[in-house]
Write a structure and sequence with these properties.
heterodimer; A: alpha+beta; Aminopeptidase; eight-stranded mixed β-sheet; 5 helices; 8 strands; B: mainly alpha; Serine Threonine Protein Phosphatase 5, Tetratricopeptide repeat; 48 helices; globular; TPR-like_helical_dom_sf (chain B); Actin cytoskeleton organization protein (chain B); NAA25_NatB_aux_su (chain B); Acyl_CoA_acyltransferase (chain A); acyltransferase (chain A)
């Protein structure tokens, strides 16, 4: 039970309980405003009845022609509100808007190859690995898990317009591209 | 532009982009030798100059280019960056305006003129520019710009309220001239609906929203749907909305709590809409309640443990029924709460969900307690979460009688035992995960803090620190534990440890605005700036970066949102900018920074003049308090002060009243010490003045406002701070007439400033003279000099009073920050006195104005201040030494004999004790030495 509402610029004053968690990065104001100034309908937040923020999603629409799609840039839920399917509800909304509003072919997201928990969550939501992007997280350096830590999976889920299911690839994990090839 | 010039300019642009301003200036100079009249090169040089802080030179060059009325894009763009750097936003507007008038058919120049206005929040002018753009270029986008600027002007704080409806009508009229319907884009639709809502044109709004396309937009755009809800509410269509919401919940499986709230609002509409409720309405409502109960119960059954909406809606329904006197079953809310706990007790948020509904008393309370007390298992992770929720709920309902030291101590032990028992569930987790037991330690710290509050025994705070440090080591990512530690370390006078934990939170960007209060509130109490240690000053500077990036970036996105036609975002962007620009925390930090600066730097006219101008700006601001206090958890019983309130140093949070009081102290002192009066300041000031606010005191003179002492401001001051305010007020009143008499006339001050600038840049700056006749020259020298008065009583007694407070506090009855507070404020009074008397230092001044007796009384006061401060310093240093020799390790360890675990052993505990002792020693000794140094520096 939570309020699903638009993410707004002034939420930057309220999101500490979410962003103080290690897994959530706090960016400069420009980051949030650049999304809100173009794709406000792909950014939404969940709020408890008490008014506390529970989580948020930030997305965009991009790509040319058959690659026109919705993209999940950031998705986060505060620790105390996990296991309540909040992430799924926000992703559902982003997919719905990408489908009905933007008429995109698919929705995609990037996830660290080592983040097994997130990967399986996205798989349950209908996403599958489309390709592996080399050194996507390169700037962060080599972590404990070596290459896997630097590489990202590009995971995709087809929308109604992708009738040929071109955004699903059976052997996506083996399909490797370099970070330069993706935007 | 010629290809050659283009090639020559490229390296200059690159140098500026990469911050190599020096080489950019050199390159510009080289090119200017060949083309001395080229505006673009001059503008680029001005930009490099302003970015290397060479303001005067940049200013001169910039004005030169502006005077030539440039109209080529490259020069305009370079100049607009220069002007932005100089804070001269109004000149940017004027510049583009002039350029566009020269080439009215240049659409881009028009759009730039619009942007310049939008960036500054100049909505009225922006609206006119947009209207002109629409007339000239027929693009519908410009029409919407003009419409939305009218709305923004209506909502602006500087607009008179009576003008609002006029502006909305104007917006409506403009919009009706549009060729394409507004539903063409969702954000145009938003603009249209906003106007209809404001003008209460409900039929039009309903028609738009009920259309097929209107419904589609609402389903894919939460912002519009939110606006739709507001419109439905405003026009009183609650029942209709309730039915729509029921349908969405039932047919589309929508579990947005907003839909449930709509059903609830509709259910009680019969009784809540009428001022006096007739029996008939009550009956109708009872019928609605029965139906709603059925509906929610069915949802609850279907969803099971998957979703909390149904059961919570039942609780909310019952709560509202009780408040309207329409509840049939007195036990209903209890039964619902218990079954809610049964179903969702293992969700971390269960406590937060239930809190609004469990304020039980009598039988319900005793049953509730008995029920919850059964949950003590930590066998599985689910059990553990359930137990934590039960403990939080039990704690929430504790009464004053149940908070005896014995019972609370038993509770603390219980929390910690369960914590140690439950630790097994987190053992295999990677260290990037939170430990499931963390909240038990948080509860333990709550109990210890209450124990300290009720008994006054500081050792309970030590115990809190020990368990929190232990838990923090186990759960390295728990920010909650660190927040509690930061609070308690400040109480214990161990600020360096608080700072360490704060840094581990990696607070950054906008978070510095909402969270830096954790370490910077009254930071001058702990800062060792008097010894040249700039740790806290640096923290202030770093935390203030966000305000700079706000002022450069946010307005840019307002413009971008106009170009992308995302009107719905613009009010929020504008509000965000305003909240950061006028953030209370920003200026609280600024005030702390000034206080620290004074202890560290030489008191001269540079410091005084610069701070005076800045503080006066701040004094005119209408502040927003963005500090996030909610982030500190609270599990204290419902009728007790929160954890944060309990652990606020000195029991007082500095807010706008505190800020206003300190601004008055410093503005007054700097005003007296400075040679700048308003007319001089106007001439010397570069950049725009802030827009006047409708609400701000407006017509009152600054001096009168500085003299005001509203009672509510004092509520935020400690007794020592109040004493400082009274001290500085008395000093200012006493010395004011002498300052005013001796201060050189404005014309002389300006001439001196002009001479200085000329020395710097090699030519006479413009506009540095006063209009004829405004300078009163030496006229006042004809008046008799003020009579020298004896120092006011309070100025002399202040230091005795502070000494007495200090001596009383030495007996150990207060927390150590209070000692530091007394000594740092005594030091501050001494420094303010130094600011106030600096003018009378030169022997020539004393001789000319026959101030011998006055200066003689300064000597007495200085001697008293210096002795007092030295004595305090000696005592504090003694205390620091003694404190570090107490074997606190043994004391620390002793408390935990009954609970030691394998890792939670005496070695760990004495390690914590050692760190606390060291941190305290460091700050005690530092403050003591600093005070001794200040007293020596300003003794004569």
């Amino acid at each position: 039970m939570s309020v699903l509402r638009p993410f707004r610029a002034t939420d930057l004053f309220k999101f500490n309980n979410i962003n103080l968690d290690i897994w959530t990065e706090t960016y400069g104001i420009s980051f949030y405003l650049s999304y809100l100034a173009r794709w406000p309908d792909l950014c939404c937040a969940q709020e408890a009845p008490s008014g506390r923020m529970m989580g948020y999603i930030i997305g965009k629409a991009e790509g040319q022609n058959l690659e026109w799609h919705g993209h999940i840039t950031a998705l986060t839920v505060a620790p105390e509100y996990r296991r309540l399917s909040l992430a799924r509800k926000m992703v559902d909304l982003l997919e719905y808007v990408s489908d009905k509003g933007y008429k995109g072919y698919f929705v995609d997201l990037y996830v660290r190859c080592t983040n097994a928990v997130a990967i399986s969550m996205y798989e349950r939501m209908g996403y599958s690995v489309y390709r592996r992007v080399r050194e996507y997280y390169g700037s962060l350096g080599m972590g404990r898990a070596g290459k896997d830590e630097e590489d990202a999976f590009d995971m995709r889920k087809p929308l109604s317009r992708d009738t040929g299911r071109r955004s699903v690839r059976a052997n996506g994990r083996e399909f490797i591209v370099s970070a330069h090839d993706v935007s | 532009m010629s290809a050659t010039l283009d090639r020559q300019l490229r390296p200059i642009y690159d140098a500026i982009d990469t911050g190599s301003n020096k080489s950019a200036i050199v390159a510009c100079n080289k090119l200017l030798k060949k083309q001395p009249k080229n505006d673009l090169i001059k503008a680029l040089k001005a930009l490099a100059l302003v970015r290397s802080q060479k303001v005067e030179e940049s200013l001169y060059l910039c004005d030169e280019v502006l005077a030539s009325k440039p109209s080529d894009e490259a020069t305009l763009s370079a100049l607009s960056h220069v002007l932005r750097g100089l804070g001269r936003h109004l000149d940017i507007i004027a510049m583009y305006d002039t350029a566009w008038k020269q080439q009215p058919s240049n659409e881009d120049l028009g759009a730039q003129t619009f942007s310049a206005n939008a960036r500054t929040g100049n909505w009225k002018a922006a609206q006119q520019v947009a209207t002109k753009l629409h007339k000239l270029f027929k693009d519908e986008r410009y029409l919407y710009w003009s419409v939305f600027c009218a709305i923004l002007q209506a909502n602006d704080a500087t607009t008179q309220p009576t003008l609002r409806p006029v502006l909305f009508k104007l917006a409506h009229r403009l919009l009706s001239s549009a060729q394409t319907p507004s539903f063409y884009s969702s954000d145009r639709f938003y603009v249209h609906l906003t106007i209809l809502k404001e003008l209460e044109l409900w039929d039009d709004a309903t028609a738009l929203l009920s259309s097929e396309i209107g419904q589609t937009i609402c389903s894919t755009n939460l912002t519009i749907d939110e606006l739709r809800r507001e419109i439905w509410k405003a026009k009183g269509s609650m029942k209709e909305e309730g039915e729509r919401a029921q349908q969405r919940v039932k047919e589309k499986d929508d579990r947005n709590w907003l839909e449930f709230l709509s059903v609830l609002d509709a259910t009680f509409w019969d009784v809540s809409s009428a001022p006096e409720t007739a029996e008939e309405a009550k009956d109708a409502c009872l019928h609605q309640i029965t139906k709603a109960v059925e509906f929610f119960a069915q949802i609850a059954d279907n969803d099971g443990a998957r979703d909390r909406s149904g059961p919570l809606a039942l609780l909310e329904l019952e709560k509202r029924a009780v408040s309207h006197g329409l509840s049939k079953d007195p036990d209903a809310i209890y039964t619902l709460a218990e079954s809610y706990f049964e179903r969702f007790g293992d969700k971390a948020c269960c406590f937060e969900d239930l809190v609004p509904y469990v304020q039980f008393s009598g039988d319900h309370l005793s049953n509730w307690i008995a029920y919850l007390e059964k949950h003590t298992s930590t066998a599985t992770p689910e059990d553990l979460r359930r137990t934590i929720n039960a403990l939080k709920l039990l704690r929430y309902n504790l009464t004053q009688e149940q908070l005896t030291p014995e019972l609370e101590a038993a509770r603390a032990t219980q929390y910690i035992r369960l914590y140690l028992d439950g630790m097994v569930h987190g053992q295999s987790l990677p260290d990037t995960e939170l430990q499931p037991v963390d909240d038990l330690v948080v509860l333990g710290a709550h109990a210890f803090v209450t124990l300290w509050k009720t008994t006054g025994d500081v050792s309970f705070l030590y115990r809190a620190v020990v368990i929190l440090e232990f838990a923090s080591g186990k759960s390295k990512q728990s920010y909650v534990i660190r927040l509690l530690l930061i609070q308690i370390y400040h109480l214990l006078g161990a600020p360096s440890l608080a700072l360490e934990h704060y840094r581990q939170l990696s607070v950054k960007q906008v978070q510095t605005d909402t969270l830096s209060y954790l370490i910077l509130s009254r930071a001058s109490t702990f800062a060792l700036s008097s010894l040249g240690d700039l740790t806290y000053s640096t923290e202030c500077m770093e935390a203030s970066q966000i305000y700079l990036s706000n002022s450069t970036d946010t307005a840019e996105f307002v413009v971008r949102a106009f170009f992308a036609e995302k009107y719905s975002q613009i009010p929020d962007f504008v509000y965000l900018e305003d909240r950061l620009d006028n953030s209370l925390q920003r200026d609280l930090m600024k005030m702390e920074h000034v206080r620290m600066r004074l202890a560290h730097e030489a008191i001269n006219s540079d410091l005084v003049d610069m701070e005076l101008i800045e503080l006066k700006f701040i004094f005119d601001r209408v502040h927003h308090d963005n500090r996030d206090f909610e982030v500190i958890p609270n599990y204290q019983p419902r009728d007790m002060p929160s954890f944060r309130e309990q652990t606020t140093p000195f029991g007082k949070v500095p807010g706008s009243g505190w800020l206003s009081s300190f601004l008055k102290i410093y503005i007054k002192a700097f005003q007296q010490a400075s040679d700048l009066d308003d007319s001089v300041e106007d001439k010397l000031l570069i950049g725009d003045r802030p827009k006047p606010h409708v609400e701000s005191a407006g017509t009152m003179l600054l001096d009168d406002r500085l003299a005001q002492r509203p009672r509510k401001d004092f509520e935020e001051l400690t007794p020592e701070e109040t004493a400082l305010l009274e001290f500085s007020t008395a000093v200012a009143e006493w010395l004011g007439p002498h300052h005013d008499y001796i201060r050189p006339p404005p014309a002389a001050v300006l001439a001196e400033a002009a001479r200085q600038t000329e020395l710097k840049i090699g030519h006479q700056p413009k506009g540095m003279t006063l209009p004829e006749g405004s300078s009163n020259g030496d006229a006042r020298k004809d008046i008799d000099p003020p009579v020298v008065q004896d120092p006011p009583e309070i100025v002399l007694t202040f230091f005795d009073d502070m000494k007495a407070r200090f001596t009383a506090a030495l007996d150990g009855s207060v927390l150590s920050p209070e000692l530091l507070h007394i000594i740092t404020l005594t030091q501050e009074a001494f420094l303010i006195f130094a600011v106030e008397t600096n003018r009378f230092k030169p022997a020539a001044v004393v001789k000319t104005h026959k101030l011998g007796p006055l200066v003689q009384s300064f000597k007495e006061i200085r001697a008293k201040a210096s002795t007092t401060l030295t004595e305090m310093s000696t005592e504090l240093e003694k205390l620091a030494k003694a404190d570090s020799q107490i074997n606190r390790q043994a004391e620390f360890v002793d408390h935990w004999k009954h609970i030691e675990g394998s890792e939670f052993n005496s070695e760990f505990i004495s390690g914590v004790a050692k760190k606390v002792t060291e941190s305290r020693h460091q700050v005690f000794e530092g403050i003591a030495k600093g005070a001794a140094k200040v007293s020596k520096t300003h003794a004569s």
